């Protein structure tokens, strides 16, 4: 039986690499922060807040930057005359617009006075919210709705909050809304009435490049690891790999911490590129697994088809060839085949998810062009996950020669 000891060969403080840890400084987001300051200046001046829509891929610092700017505002407001700001932060992951409205009401209530998140007409919940806002001592209430993507087509709350003044629901307290989303499709699908209010000001967080990721990782590594535990190539290698695929700081930090765990588990006192490679594989498998789970089984079959063509060295490949191969595979595993049009849609979806790449090929003097497909993601990782996680992969595994 293993025994525990209180020693660690690599970590000084592994907490620093967890998602809940807040670093002291925000790296490489000067432009986004100065836009925030410009837009929030109205609040400092005692005027009505302007609404802000913040968007960008996952892990690019949207939550962290917003937390930091609002902390600064709350700190600085002590000096302002006639301004007192209250921030109401709500994470909306997996919640509906209606449930979030109930949570906002409950922010203003004692525990034993909280309302249930079902059963009230929506208008009643909103009325309660307006009453609480009007009753608060603050001059300004800033709502932050983080991860609003699950609202889907029901964006009523995102319409109501910015309109509460104009619609006469609130007269005294000034309110503003910061909505944060990591889904570009969600932004485009917001109704026109929400776009014209919430999206009055937009801040786009772009993926980090390799240099920025290196800086973020170095800041964490200094605190997280013991002196000398990290060999020189680790941070540049991690940053380069992540910049190539997602540009997500969260992913980069995860890989660094997993590399540390792998080294510790092996009783190695130095973290090297081989630990990073293993950690990258581990983290990517997790990401691919989550993404695959969200796709229908037919897409798994299509992905497997492209994978098998890639393994035969036949990529980039035209859609017609994919369709022929797909029919053979679907037959092999006893699945109905889909039409060429559906296959086209599945291929588009897979390319949106970053699994495959679409390249346009010009026909030359005859004019016109056609598409070829190739693998974008790491083949071995996809193959592992498909074979171990997907029902399709398991069936294919049994049928493989
Ligand atoms: N500029 C930065 N400097 C230092 N650390 C950063 C920076 N950007 C992100 N991080 C760290 O990366 C992780 C992810 O950042 P954050 O949670 O802000 O991403 P996000 O854009 O809100 O992602 P999601 O859309 O998934 O919510 C956090 O641990 C955060 O501390
Ligand atoms: Mg976030």
UniProtKB/TrEMBL annotation:
Residues reported to bind ATP: 60-64, 208, 220
Cdc6 C-terminal domain location: 303-386
InterPro entries according to UniProt: AAA+_ATPase, AAA_16, Cdc6_C, Cdc6_lid, ORC1/CDC6, Orc1/Cdc6_arc, P-loop_NTPase, WH-like_DNA-bd_sf
Pfam families per the UniProt record, alphabetical: AAA_16, Cdc6_lid, WHD_Cdc6
Domain AAA+ ATPase: 48-209
Annotated GO biological process: DNA replication
UniProt feature coiled coil, ranges: none
UniProt family annotation: Belongs to the CDC6/cdc18 family.
Physiological role: Involved in regulation of DNA replication.
UniProt xrefs under PANTHER family: CELL DIVISION CONTROL PROTEIN 6-RELATED, ORC1-TYPE DNA REPLICATION PROTEIN
Protein name as catalogued: ORC1-type DNA replication protein
Organism of this sequence: Haloquadratum walsbyi (strain DSM 16854 / JCM 12705 / C23)
Gene of this entry: orc7
